[in-house]
Amino acid sequence: MNKKQKKNLVRIIVAAVLLLILSYAPLTGGGRFIAYLIPYLIVGYDILLKAGKGIKNRRAFDECLLMAIATIGAMALAVYEDGDYTEAIAVMLFYQIGEWFQSYAVGRSRRDISALMDIRPDYANLQRENGELEKVDPDEVEIGSVIVVKPGEKIPLDGVVVEGTSTLNTVALTGEAMPRDIQTGDEVLSGCININGLLKIRTTKEFDESTASKILEMVEDASSRKSKSENFIAKFARVYTPIVVYAAIALAVLPPLTRMLFMGMPADWGTWIYRALIFLVISCPCALVVSIPLSFFAGIGGASRQGVLVKGANYLETLAEVDTVVFDKTGTLTKGVFQVSAIHTDVLDEKQLLHLAAHVERFSTHPIAESLRMAFGHEADGCNVEQVEEISGQGIRALVNGQIIHVGNDKLMDAIGVKWHECEHDTPGTMIHVAVAGEYAGHIIIADAVKEHAKDAIVALKENGIRQTVMLTGDSMKVADKVAADLQLDIVYSQLLPQDKVRKVEELLAGRNSGKLAFVGDGINDAPVLSRADVGIAMGAMGSDAAIEAADIVLMDDDPLKISVAQRVARKTLRIVKQNIYFSIGVKVLVMILGALGFANMWAAIFADVGVMVLAVLNAVRAMFINSVK
Amino acid sequence: MKKTYKIEVDCANCANLMEDAAKNTPGVADATVNFMALKMKVTFVEGADVQTVMENVLANCKKVEDDCEIFF
Fold it and tell me: Is there a catalytic annotation at residue A328?
């Protein structure tokens, strides 16, 4: 609670207690009026002052002015009729309670969400040239400086580890609860928390360009891009108050005149003015106006807790309507890292074949060599590798323990005159042949591995009611079809150039019925596609900066399963927004109709104003909570 | 030119009113108020004097909501 909130709470409590005491006090006439005036002024003086300013600025539909007219009118009627001032004061009291609650709830959500996004580093330990450490503002650290991050501290700037090993907690950044092990040479992102080891990091980015700052900026900016519902409510609020006020005036004047002039009945001014005042109490569109941005804010906050950054309320709205999801293959559904997927031998056993291949590739930096060494695991054993010769575009030849080994593609086999054959299992991927002493020994298949959650991601999307899943890739048809079949994708287009991807997405956009289209990519070559789709979703951890810039939604941990989570958050938020719109307008209209007919009193109006607002705000906050991955 | 300012305002409807008031200030090409983040983004007309324009924006906003504040 801030100072203003505390002060207002005290005013509300004092006025409420006074009102309670007065209801038991045996006062009559003028003394009673003055006694009741005290709690009214305590709780409502600022509204009255603001109402005065509203008149001065010629703002007929000023909320405070209307509230002042409603309460003063009710007081006047009370003096004139029966001397029950409670209703008038209650209107003011509850109006203030509503305002207080709104301010408190909004403040709480602001804090909750910034706590969720607690990645802003406060300081950096800069290492000076003489080796001393100095605590400085992360803003002042230049690129290439060495900073020290102690256990428990947040990494303040993006950089590369130059010394130390540790485990990082990346949950605030990616939503991934599993800690990440890092060692010297690894790249680290700001916003992660160093769990155990002491790290020395050479910074590669300035503070403003570092991941933590960028993410915070994105999330804070997100609610500036307003959704359709927000724009609708803003327009609605502009006409709602005038309509209600004119209706109130008509209600106060027309029926009594009609009764007097045409029906020959007494005018009964008191009753009709009372009914008009009910209208004024309901004339504030607050509940609606506050609950819609609050819902989106909470939804965006809830999504970021899951490691999904949504760059605008409008994108949340579009995501909820998505029924076609188009994926890029490499880096999105697959890891984008080559791994040994099969070993088919002719003479040796599998282990031996891999063993020899790994040795031959011992000194190579080619990605294929790396995956072979990775697959074998303990390549640096005692074996003797000599006379290594790289044959560009073909492969490598080497002597392993005195035996000549060739490892490479079909061209290499042809060149050395070894008879090779196509893979008998028809496994898709890149074939690496191995020949031992001029004899064909077998081949190893290297393929890009499908991400662990890719299959679950597609299943979860189908459960969400996604009509069509499509994969676009530049890869060969054989590989693409295999991945698509494994993941049970509906359509696959292979051997596409980057510009073909844009064209395919445009075709799909033209061919769809009603739902929206989302494109998911890692941003390597697909930034134009990301911006062309209704919603562009990018992989954040591995994706390029350009992709994150062009995308509307960023998955911080590169997990495609998060797409369905994000969609569930979006749908829940939209559901809450709709509930709030229908509920608030519905109750207000209902109470106005009942009020005009004489079935609703001031208390019903208070409920339609304050009660509805409290319920709408509480409902809005629900958008923050979503079950994580099942 | 575009600038972002920190603001203070209590109610969401007032924030919308501030947005309208800012938009209708001479020298302002466009303005958005983000109630949840308490920020106002102002796009200025080419060649406008930012300081004067912002003073007018604040004055106009004060007319619709006395309690508001813009930090510039």
Answer: yes
